[in-house]
């Protein structure tokens, strides 16, 4: 609640910020803030002085920064490529984002079991160096920036009205909400099933890695599509429901692991197609506000 609550609360403001500001510079600021928070938490964990309330505070602070970062990061993709390549770029970005959500917990589970939580947090901080290097090396003169909306009253309300006038986007948002709420709880159900099959942190990490195999395959398929379609989102969500039902019925650890490949494939296909459809069919001046609603 502390990590994701701010995304809901700040969604109208963060979306407008994404439409107004220099996205590359703001991403530098948000990534520095997230690295600093990870460093602080990692140090107090290593010093063995962390309390539950301190973890709550760090988590809430991370949620605040992430609330600003999420729509900016998503919409920045459209500035990196030409208009013709936006669907493929959005698909690759969404695939990397969702793929990381699947792979990250698995890798972290293995590392925590071997070296401890504090060192894993510091490794996470080090990875921000790659992100910062990429942002610095981007040639800002070659970015495809669109005209920023001028400051005036009612811009947040205008974003809501725009979404209200697009029934196709409303359908996507409802589907993403339902599947995200009831289906995208991979760390919870894979760890629970690992325990049910008498496996520890390593067994949990392996399940997440196996699911990532399907997600990587799904990302490659998504990047090949020239144009995202609502039909693909619908078909993939149906496939995801069938795959999770099959996973629930598996009698052993290894049969469950095999079905997770299909779960990863269908889930990533659905979310990638949904993300790409919303971004590529939204007016550039509204993209930040619409994507903030999508992320929420």
Strand and helix layout:
Blueprint: H1 5-20, H2 23-46, H3 52-80, H4 86-115, H5 117-137, H6 155-164, H7 167-182, H8 186-196, H9 201-224, H10 230-248, H11 253-281, H12 287-295
Task: Using brief descriptors, characterize the structure shown.
single chain; 296 residues; mainly alpha; 0% strand
Description:
With about 300 residues, the chain is mainly alpha-helical. The protein has twelve helices and no strands. The protein has helices at about 5-20, 25-45, 50-80, 85-115, 115-135, 155-165, 165-180, 185-195, 200-225, 230-250, 255-280, 285-295. The radius of gyration is 20 Å and the shape is globular. The protein starts with a helix and ends with a helix. The mean pLDDT is about 85.
The proportion of residues in beta strands is: under 5%
Following the backbone from N to C, one meets helices and strands in this order, namely HHHHHHHHHHHH
Tell me about the largest β-sheet.
none
Range of helix content: over 70%
Number of strands: 0
Overall pLDDT level: 85
Distance between the termini: 13 Å
The Rg value, from CA coordinates, equals 20 Å
In the predicted model, the low-confidence regions spanning at least 5 consecutive residues are none
Overall shape: it is globular
Quaternary state, please? Answer: single chain
**Helix segment count?**
12
Broad structural category: mainly alpha
């Amino acid at each position: 609640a502390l990590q994701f609550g701010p995304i809901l609360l700040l969604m109208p403001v963060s979306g407008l910020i994404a439409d107004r500001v220099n996205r590359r510079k703001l991403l530098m600021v948000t990534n520095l803030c997230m690295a600093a928070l990870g460093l602080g938490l990692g140090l107090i964990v290593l010093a063995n002085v962390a309390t539950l309330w301190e973890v709550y505070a760090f988590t809430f602070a991370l949620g605040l920064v992430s609330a600003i970062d999420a729509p900016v990061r998503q919409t920045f993709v459209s500035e990196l490529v030409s208009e013709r390549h936006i669907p493929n770029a959005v698909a690759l970005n969404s695939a990397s984002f969702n793929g990381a959500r699947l792979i990250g917990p698995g890798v972290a589970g293995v590392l925590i079991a071997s070296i401890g939580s504090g060192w894993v947090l510091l490794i996470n901080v080090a990875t921000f160096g790659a992100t910062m290097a990429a942002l610095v090396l981007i040639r800002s003169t070659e970015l495809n920036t669109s005209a920023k909306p001028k400051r005036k009253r009612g811009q947040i309300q205008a974003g809501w009205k725009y979404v209200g006038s697009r029934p196709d986007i409303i359908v996507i948002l409802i589907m993403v909400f339902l599947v995200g709420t009831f289906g995208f709880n991979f760390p919870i159900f894979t760890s629970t099933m690992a325990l049910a099959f008498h496996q520890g942190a390593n067994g949990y990490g392996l399940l997440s890695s196996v699911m990532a195999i399907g997600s990587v395959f799904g990302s490659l398929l998504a990047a090949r599509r020239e144009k995202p379609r609502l039909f693909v989102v619908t078909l993939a969500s149906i496939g995801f429901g069938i795959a999770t039902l099959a996973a629930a019925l598996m009698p052993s650890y290894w049969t469950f692991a095999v079905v997770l490949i299909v779960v990863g494939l269908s889930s990533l296909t659905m979310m990638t197609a949904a993300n790409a459809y919303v971004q590529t069919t939204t007016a550039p001046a509204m993209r930040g506000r619409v994507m903030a609603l999508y992320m929420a």
